[in-house]
Amino acid sequence: MAVAVSGLWCPNPTISRIPTLESRRMSVRSGPLASVASLSSPPPTIQIVGGKAPSWYGDGGASSSNSYGLVGVEGDEDIDWVKMEADLYYWTKALRPVQWYPGHIGKAEKELKEQLKLMDVVIEVRDARIPLSTTHPEMDSWLGNRKRILVLNREDMISKADRNAWAAYFSRQGMKVIFANGKLGMGSTKLGRLAKDMAANVNIKRRAKGLLPRAVRAGIVGYPNVGKSSLINRLLKRRMCPAAPRPGITRDLKWVRFGKDLELLDSPGILPMRISDQTAAIKLAMCDDIGERSYDVADVAAVLVQMLIRIPSVGAKALQDRYKIDNDCLCGKTFVQKLALHLFSGDTHQAAFRILADFRKGKFGWVALERPPR
């Protein structure tokens, strides 16, 4: 259920010891999940260590721009992504928790764990715009030593520099990575070939035991709406699995056969029962990888605006040019309200939805919301 939130915050405080996205993920894996505030409780009190408390309506936007020092610069290589994550962590502290766990996910997760025992190779699909935020914190423990292929889908929505950075990062982790575009089919042929190659030893062992060869079994797993079913349909070159641009379409596990030597398992999107990392949750909302009823659209759009104006390939000017309104204070909430008055008779929900829809359709260009940890 969406909850109206008062008191969102504008950038940009100086915060000490704010954990990075990767360190927060490690803490989730190594310890119990953090408790989640009830929907009836007031917004948490934020203590700022150093710096100046920002205001949604103050003139802190200009100083925020200068603190990044990047508006108007070509390319995003010089962004301080650690600082970006720190700001995002601060902004989300004032918001109600984003949580979404439809009933079918619990059942699907239990069935998936059973089916994993039958798989020769696992294909994990993530959103290329937010690869760290679209991996389940328990995925590594589920897979163990099982062979894995990582697919970063929606490669068309990030820049070449982003692709190179993520390719290098995952290569250092020893992972096989394929960039794909499920809608257009790019990467699907390479994926099918790699899955067969990685599991070739299965039939070598079977022949040694005097058994007949069998099809390689590959399971496709990942968060909701990252493009799992679309990839399968592209591999098969026909619509075998239901797919739509919203989370929660696939609700049951389904095996489909690809030729004589490959079987694919399409599975529903799997999310943690409780998302303790709220910076990851807000990015899931921005990229439409979580149900819309789990968050307030106006809040998410406001935070997205504050991220986009700090990304040089977008910046405040791109937002102004697209919507023909000024963004002089660089404040997300103010911008959403101005757009609502300008185009939607004051309806902030419609204005926020327009901003999110434009981002998801790539109207602001190739925009990644994460970069690899250094």
Automatic annotation (TrEMBL):
Species of provenance: Linum tenue
Cellular component, GO, one term: mitochondrion
One GO term (biological process): mitochondrial translation
Record carries keyword Nucleus: no
Any Pfam family: MMR_HSR1
Protein origin, superkingdom: Eukaryota
InterPro entries xrefs: GTP-bd (IPR006073), GTP-bd_ortho_bundle_sf (IPR023179), GTP-bd_ribosome_bgen (IPR019991), P-loop_NTPase (IPR027417)
Record's keyword annotation contains GTP-binding: yes
Signal peptide: none
Domain G: 218-275
UniProt-recorded name of the protein: G domain-containing protein
SUPFAM superfamilies registered for this protein in UniProt: P-loop containing nucleoside triphosphate hydrolases (SSF52540)
GO molecular function: GTP binding; GTPase activity
Keywords: GTP-binding, Nucleotide-binding
